[in-house]
Amino acid sequence: MAEGVGLHERLRPYRVVLASRARAQRAYRTSFALDLVCSLLVGVVELAEIWVLFTNVTALGGLRFNQILLVFGLADLSFSLADLSFGHLDNLPDFLRAGTLDAFYLRPQPILAQLITSDISLRRLARAGVGAAALGVGLTTAHLTWSPRVAGLLPLALISGYATFSGLFVWAAGLQFFLLDGSEMTNAFVYGGRYAATQPAAVWSRPLKLVFGFFFPMAFTAYLPAVTMLGLPGPDWLPAWLGWCAPAAAVWSWLMGLACWRWGLRHYQGGGG
Amino acid sequence: MRATARVYWRLLVAGFRRQSAYRLAALGGLVANVTFGLLKVSILFATVRAAGGELRGYDVASMSTYVWLSQGLLGSVNLNGRTDLALRVKDGQVAVDFLRPVDLQAATIASEAGASLFALIPRGLPSVLLGAVTIGIQLPTSPLIYPLGAVSLMLGIVISAATVYLIAVAGFWLLETRGLQIFYMLASSFLGGLYVPISLFPQWLRIVAAVTPFPSIMMYPVDVLSGLGGTAEATRLVLVQLAWLAGVATIGQLLTRAGRRRLEVQGG
Question: Do B182 and A182 touch (CB under 8 A)?
């Protein structure tokens, strides 16, 4: 990279592509409105799934419905935003099968950075809206005592959650170089991870706590920060102070993501032709 | 008549073989199914325990049966609404399908059913087995349940193929069926009992589910196979499924005939 070229100038190609993708989606108004409605409904159905359980019982894993809304809101808001900016990495198997990934090698930019900025799914904003609404209701009705602790944890949890889920998308993309047809396997931890993140981790068995509590650090995106904010003790293996370690989970997720990406990219032999 | 039946049987076998080519995809699906199954087990067991060990007829053992049977069925019933036919209707290739001396609806459903039956081998049975080994499931007590369960499962597969067929042929009138497809995906998985058993719904939502074909696709086969309400209840559910199949298939046939007259393919 030439000396003297500012960061602003270096990021310009990425900004131009993203802006054009965003414009393209809004060009067909009816189609975009339909996409927004569908995305909104996805969020609503996911929330309804939890609500149905609470029509039968008053508390699950030590949390009442308004407290679960806090967990659901944190998890779904940060997941939807990560999905908005990184979700299209799921299309990597299509690029690999069609051999179109090779075109990315021709440009003087890192391949991962190009892929990430190759698209942006604005429709996910609707689903993020459902998450934000659930979070808002949770925050106002769950009898939180507002304190510097809560005010500090809330942005910390959202930013770390966003980063953790983003890292998870990169992690999955790196593995796609090996899986190809078996790409659904990574759904187990990406979309399964989102599902796990909205659950009260107290109901998990010990193996699940290892897998979705620590290895894929889903409990750190929503449940643990929520428990810390509520001043609850937290279950076995997941004490409440871990809520403050959400940034460590994000770092772990990105380290694993980048390691898998490098490993996958080295394995890739090109599409031929 | 026998010759006609043989054609559709061949299409069913071809669908079965086509699906058998994607082994790695099946393994990927299985891993995802089992992971979601384990997470569903945790939250649903917690719900049953919070309700005092028994909830609307479910205890932990029968809840486990529900989770693993429904996860196992997931590879065999279409709850996402996407079909190849929808694409063929959109780009006009369906005109070629109409030239073939077979009924479009019957041929599509037979081929889909074949693929679904194959999916039971790498995805359905292993999901149920893994669930049975790791968590444990409850087996039905009456031997009559097994043949009824097999019939109900087959009906679920066929109703699923016949219902997504409706979305594809709606493409004769609509420019874009994607909205319909996503709506189907959300409604069929929620009202079909993929996330939570329908009997846990509040009453009004149970009624909403009962007036759609979706429970016949997944919930009723799972209920029949798990033998939850005994033979009488299982027989009733199979009859409800038969009624839905007749309804959905009739609408599909009418739409196909009307759509065929409407279809206009440009170019040559």
Answer: no
Would B267 be classed as within a structural domain?
A: no
Domain assignment of residue B268, yes or no: no
pLDDT digits (tens, 9 = 90+) for B95-154: 889 988 899 999 999 999 999 999 999 889 999 999 999 888 888 888 889 999 999 999
Closest CA to B47 of A193, A188, A51, A136: A51
Q: Determine the Cα–Cα distance for residues A253 and A263; give it in Å rounded to an integer.
A: 15
Substitution target from B36, B43, B54, B205 for chain A, most A beta carbons within 10 A:
B43
Tally of structural domains, chain B: 1
Quote the ipTM score: 0.91
Please tell me the pTM assigned to this model.
0.91
Dist. CA A106–CA A118, nearest whole Å: 15
Tens of pLDDT along B202-211? Answer: 999 999 999 9
Contact B202 A60 (CB under 8 A): no
Nearest of A83, A250, A241 to residue A161 by alpha carbon: A250
CB contact, 8 Å: B199 with chain A? no
Q: Per the CB < 8 Å rule, is B176 touching A185?
A: no
Q: Domain of B138?
A: 2-262
